[in-house]
Each structure stands twice: as structure tokens, then as C-alpha cells.
Amino acid sequence: MFSLEGRTALLTGGAGGLGRAMAAAFAEQGASVAVSDLRPGASTEIAGELAERYPAQAFAGVSMDVTDEASVTAGVAEATKAVGSPDIAVLAAGIGELQPIATMSFQQWRHMLAVHLDGTFLGIRHTVNPMIERGWGRVICFSSVASLQGVARQAHYAAGKGGVDALVRSFSREVAADGVTVNAIAPGYIESPLNELAPPGRIEALTESVPAGRFGYPSEIGALAAYLASDEAAYLTGQIISPNGGFKYCHHLGD
Ligand SMILES: NC(=O)c1ccc[n+]([C@@H]2O[C@H](COP(=O)([O-])OP(=O)(O)OC[C@H]3O[C@@H](n4cnc5c(N)ncnc54)[C@H](O)[C@@H]3O)[C@@H](O)[C@H]2O)c1
Question: Which residue among 56, 90, 97, 188 is least packed, with the fewest CB closer than 10 Å?
Fold first, then answer.
């Protein structure tokens, strides 16, 4: 079960903590993978490591800024040339920031929405048509518990993720009859560089708020993404799935 042999995946934000784990999980299941990121050196390094480990599959590192349509167009074209047209699009590019609305600049607001909401739209828009033509496709977006539960000082981040949730629910219905599924993973707190900028004490407070008693592992997100990308998940669409160790946002986090 869950084989991805013969499939091609394109990841945005692929050099991040979760992107790297998902690229590894897809490769393990037999897929060819294009790892795209704003940081091309890191994505090329990841692709190189996977190519060494899985010589029968194709891998490429691609430079892509998901807030810029020309960059997304060029990145998808480069990925397609290197590894083939994506059957699976994973839209995981993201940034984090703690900022109260009372002191947030319009530029901060716009950039957060650009990375998460525009970036998800552009990633979908530039990969989905060949999936529809082939009658098979998987779109995996990234939401967050910030959207599902609300987090103070992350209203811009949560708003972007809430937009992703609504996009997933509606768009999934447009392509459900074309063999294309569209879902979002809405993680709780997962060990990744995204959380490394947290102020002192926050990680400890967050960990105490997770009934499972720990942050999630990136490999756990990789396994879920591999399942969502598989043939076996064909009937699962329009869903926001939250691996979060039972986390429920608490006030005592200092927010
Ligand atoms: N790690 C968590 O705890 C967590 C929780 C909830 C949601 N998420 C979401 O999961 C996704 C992946 O998160 P992560 O933990 O891997 O974060 P990360 O910071 O490790 O990786 C994010 C990647 O996105 C890239 N990126 C940033 N801006 C970009 C842009 N404009 N164009 C292209 N790439 C860009 C970064 O270079 C980085 O490699 C994000 O959407 C994040 O919001 C993560």
C-alpha cells in the first residue's frame, strides 16, 4: 500500500523542516521529486542526497519564490523538464512571525498573506491543469492549528492559513470528478526551523500544552503526506487534517 512508484512530486518550501521530510518520504515510496525553495542551495543539496540514495528515481533542486508568479512559472517548467510533470503538488512554503495587530505594518500583513495564500494559489494554478488532463492528481496544502484555533500575535499567519482552508474546501469540489484530490495538513507544533525563532520559554510552554507531551516529528508529517499522495487516498478530498498530539491552544502561553 501507499506506493508512489512512477509518480512525480513537486514541493514548494521543500528545503524546510517539513519539506525535507516529505521529500524523503515520497522518495522512499518510489516517487521522483523536485524540491523547490527560495533557498536554491538547500533544495539542490536535498535533491543530491536523495539521488544518491535512490538512483533509479529522478530528483532536482529548483529555485522558486512562491510570491512571484513569474518565478513559479519558471520553477514549475524547470521541475517538469528535470523530473517530469508533477502528479503531486505539495505547497509547504511558509514563514513565521509573532506580531500583535496593534503594531503590525501593512507590509508585514501583505507579505504573510503573499507567502501563504498567494503562494498556495500560484502553486495550484501552475500545476493542476496537467493533473486534470491525466485524470490523476494530488494537491497537498499547508494550514495550521493557528487557523483552526486562533493564536494571539499570529493573526496575519492565521488569516493566511484560514484562506488556505477555504481554498481547499472549495477548489477540491471543482476537480473531484477529475481524479484530483485537494487536502490541507494543519499541523500542531512540529520540530522544525520554523519554531526556532520562538522567544525563550515559549517552546517549553507549548510542549506543556500538548497532551502527547512532545512536538511532532517531521517524519510523521512525511508519512501523512505520502498517504495523501497515494492511490489509497483517492476518496479523501476537501479535508483539513490536523496532526497535533491533541494540542488545544491555551492562554497560559503568555499570549
Ligand atoms: N513546523 C510547524 O510546527 C508547523 C506548524 C503548522 C504549520 N506549519 C506549516 O507547514 C509548512 C512548512 O513549515 P516548516 O516547519 O517546514 O517551515 P520551515 O521554516 O522549516 O520551512 C519553510 C520553507 O519555506 C521557504 N520559503 C519561505 N518563503 C518562501 C517563498 N516566498 N517562496 C518559496 N519558499 C519560501 C523557506 O526557505 C523554508 O525552506 C509551512 O506552511 C508552515 O506554515 C508548520
Answer: 56
Cα separation, 214 vs 146, whole angstroms: 18
Q: Is the CB of 244 under 6 A from ligand 1?
A: no
Residue 177 CA to ligand 1 center (angstroms) comes to 30
Ligand 1 pocket, residue 195 CB under 6 Å = yes
* Whole-structure pTM value: 0.98
pLDDT tens-digit map of 198-226: 777 888 888 888 999 999 999 999 999 99
Tell me the mean pLDDT in the region 22-50. Answer: 98
Q: Which domains does the chain have, with CATH numbers?
A: 8-253 (3.40.50.720)
User: Would residue 249 show up in a list of annotated catalytic residues for this protein?
Assistant: no
CA of 194 to the centre of ligand 1 (A): 6
Burial code (b: 16+ CB inside 10 Å, e: under 16) for 151-161 equals bebbbbbbbbb
CB 190 near ligand 1, within 6 Å:
yes
d(CA 91, CA 116): 9
Q: How close is the Cα of 199 to the center of ligand 1, in Å?
A: 18
